[in-house]
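Hey L., structure's done. Input below.
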Amino acid sequence: MSTQISTKEDPILAYRQAFFAAAKAGDVDGVLSLVTDDVVMMSPNDTTVYGKAEYRAWWEEYFQYFRLAVFTEPERVVVINDDFATEYAAYMLAVVPVNGGGRMRDDGRSLTIWK
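Output:
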């Protein structure tokens, strides 16, 4: 059984906000504190990342080159299932190259499974 929930009832929102606060701060340990050991990340135009060790390496490399400047979610839906939640979101983010240069914008969609 699943239930779509409103923002007021959203048990995932605090974790989502903590994740992006850590990402904006370049805090790899903060990002990793919010994922399970069996994390899988499938970013567009990149190899699939399996497990915390690969996930850490991905974020460490990312933060060598970029800083997250802006993140918004104009659309976000959370569906609570028996023992996990599914989060669908549309996002807009802007990153700034660490070594200078202008902001780069990315618009996309994400699917996150929360345990």
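The chain has one domain: 3-114. Residues 3-114 form a domain with the Nuclear Transport Factor 2; Chain: A, fold (CATH 3.10.450.50).

-- N.
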